Amino acid sequence: MSTSGDGSIENPPQSDTTNITTTIRQMNGPPLTCSQALNTDFNFILEAGYVPETEAFYNKLWAERDVMRVIVKHHLGLSDKSICTIADQHDWMRGFFNVCIPVEVQSPDSFHKQKLILRCAMPHKLAEAYNPGSVDEKMGCEVGAYAWIQERCPEIRIPHLYGFAFSNQRHFTHEAHLPLHTRAASYLRRKLHKLLKHPLLLSRYTKNPSGHRLSSAYMLLENVRTEDSHTLASNWERHQEDPIRRYNLSRSIARIMLSLARFPQSEIGSFQFHPNGTVTLTNRPLICTAMIHENEGAPMSMQRETTYTSTEPFVADMFHFHDKRFSGHPNVIDDAEDCREEMAIRLLNRMVAHHYIRQDHRNGPYFLQLNDFHASNVFVDSDWNITSLIDLEWICALPVELLEVPYWLSGCEIDEPRKERWEDFNVVRKEFLKIFEAEACVVRAEHGISLAKIMRESWESGGVWFWHGITSQNAMTLLFKQHIQPRFLGKSLAGSEEEMLSSFWSEESGKVVQRKVEELEKYKGEVESLFSNGAKGGSNGINGSKGLE
Questions:
Q1: Which residue, 483, 513, 529, is CA-closest to 333?
Q2: Mean of the pLDDT values across residues 20-43?
Q3: This protein's superkingdom (predicted)?
Q4: What is the mean pLDDT of the chain?
Q5: Based on the number of CB atoms within 10 Å of its own CB, is 238 exposed (0-12), middle (13-18) or buried (19 or more)?
Q6: Among 11, 234, 447, 520, which residue's CB has the most CB atoms within a 10 Å radius?
Q7: In the chain, where the domains are located
């Protein structure tokens, strides 16, 4: 590492990667060349490692097909004579965190084939190696969300959850598929629970031990795919400009958002399923971004049983989490100047945070929201009415300020609306809010808060970009520069100003910059070595997998 005459850090010369022409596959996306990999802002070394780990996970599950058949029949309460067919690997579907295995079941006395999905959590994508118990935490939150929606929001169509098992092989089954005496006991228990006005929600899932064990935590779900229903992502680009379809979709989304928000929550957090079948809002807010970064090695800044009764501590912990990720990620910067800019903007974001935290709702109420809602998470009919919502793993009770118009409805990326797509985004935003307000008039909520008014005010104040930034993977700096900084300063910060501000991010900011530049150069060398070895050893890959996301 060299320094200039004034002792400041100089960026080392760039290495030449033009002669490395091999490509390496990644989990979610096309194969990349060395130059392309070095140009990404995620840790490509980890990403490339997920491919063989996923392949090993596939092979392990494939070897357990007989166990799968037994546990499916176990949860459905079927006899051994029933035929259970596990799909071939090339028909399996993979999302970011789970492998979904299509299953067909036919009982001896029926010609009808029941279609299900066995959804297995991938430990290597859920930070299990860094934080043991992460898989079960994610499972407990998702099951809790399923149970809560079943009881409180039956108008939201979700797949039927037949049963599930945690990684320690605690098995649970929906009471509808258990013997008569068990169903009767469960019914009486719920009646007594309601009679005593117990504050905890009692789900319809009860322990159902099995002597057969799958190596993965799993959920057994209804397969909601039909001839008349498909994922929105499958034809989004073809029909996104159709005004009728867009209206139907916006209305369906608005209804889901309003249904979830009907019941105000006293804390920021996620649902948690307990072994006695109860569901409580006692888990940390399990945000998708947090799990992705923790899987890259970022320290857990919110302990699992941490909830928040005030917005400010939640925001402070989110900033702390992003700082920890910035500190530990090897290629989060481009060079020394970029490092100082990142540190300065993180400081400035903290300084302006109070402008975007509503004082009238700083202590709640909070509202359930879909933290990772996108076109692959919903099934729609041919007219784009939502027929089912899937993937409930990231539902959290969050500050009302986080309610927003889904930006992807305009076809924009999160960094586009400030540029050439601004008017497109604004048209869709106004359309959605108009539909949202109309639907809000017919929803009987247990609060008198105008959510549409808050969403509109958040847009006008620029708060929508602040909240997007602190809950996104890597958009905080860009959104601050595009949307927040111009409201306070009509020009970009000079390099000397960024250097001065960055000094307040850490007492040893100069050492931080030097360390981050050194880490970047080490990372680049490791990536180049990975590709050089790849050129000698051939490409990697996963056989027979369909992506969900």
A1: 513
A2: 88
A3: Eukaryota
A4: 91
A5: exposed
A6: 520
A7: 52-130+159-191+205-223, 310-364+462-530
